[in-house]
Amino acid sequence: MGADPAGLTAWKADRLAALQAEDGWLNLTDRLEIPPGPQRVGAGADNDLVLSRGPAHLGVVDAGAGTFTPEGGTALAFQPAPGGFPQLRLPPFLLELHTVDGIPALRVRDLTLPREVVLRAFPYRPDWVIQARWEVLASPQAQAVAQKGGAETSVSLTHRAHFEREGRTITLLPTHWKDGKPMFVIRDATSGRETYAASRFLIGEVEGEVVTLDFNRAFTPPCGFTDFAICPLPPRENVLPFRVEAGEWAPEGVPHA
Predict the structure, then answer these.
(1) Same-domain status, 161 and 216
(2) Co-location of 199 and 128 in the same domain
(3) In terms of CB atoms within 10 Å, which of 41, 134, 178, 228 comes out highest?
(4) Does residue 104 have a cis peptide bond before it, meaning omega lies within 30 degrees of 0?
(5) Based on the domain organization, do 126 and 229 belong to the same domain?
(6) Same domain, 12 and 33
(7) The last residue of a domain, from among 65, 85, 110
(8) Which pLDDT band holds residue 37 (cuts at 50, 70, 90)?
(9) What is the mean pLDDT of residues 91-112?
């Protein structure tokens, strides 16, 4: 399988642990947009928000108030979650207020479901650890971004990454940021074959005027594991015309993928 440099094994372990966590991507059962005002929630057809599983009447959600009132109980407040959206544990469910473009939705995780997945990857390729030129734009530029599972949105670009590969000059756009680091949404000639068809995500490491792009850490986005995620798709510049035989393959053990 080739060399495995320091840090990559730990990175893979952390990635798997995050996927298999209670609030990971493997146990989502529903995502339902929430209209204004109190909305009845449950598996019964007479609810405003009909769940795919659970009791006929689970309770009432009020996105504006940030509360959920269990059937026959008192209102409970959704609580902030580290790095995520407000959550509320209501066994066997973990409820989440998931807001995208100002529209709230109730995202439901069933904590009793198995959270198993097999993550495969190409053998490590040191030649796919690329030191790219990190360009700061003179002024922010608006960029339209299509989304799988959601409407088109717009982001503000502040940087670009440039490198040479297979005789071509490549410019990648970091359309998103994660924990203060630029995130690139990419697609290449392995997409829909070995790797997930819609895209892969790649987090850059910036040092001065250089951004390190370690394609061995390119990974499948949340929408590769569940239909209840909303994921950005790559802009035209980030669709690479060659095979990137590095990083994560499409997942095994996930019916959606």
Answers:
(1) yes
(2) yes
(3) 41
(4) no
(5) yes
(6) no
(7) 110
(8) very high
(9) 96
Radius of gyration of the chain (CA): 20
Residues 231, 147, single domain; the answer is: yes
Tell me whether residue 254 is in a domain: no
165 exposed, middle or buried (CB, 10 Å; 0-12, 13-18, 19+)?
middle
- State pLDDT tens for residues 213-222: 999 999 999 9
The pLDDT tens digits for 40-90 are 999 999 999 999 999 999 999 999 999 999 999 999 999 999 878 999 999
* 122 domain-assigned: yes
The answer to whether 120 and 195 are in contact (CB under 8 A) is no
Say whether both 230 and 175 belong to one domain.
Answer: yes
Domains of the chain: total: 2
Range of the domain at 192: 8-18+118-238
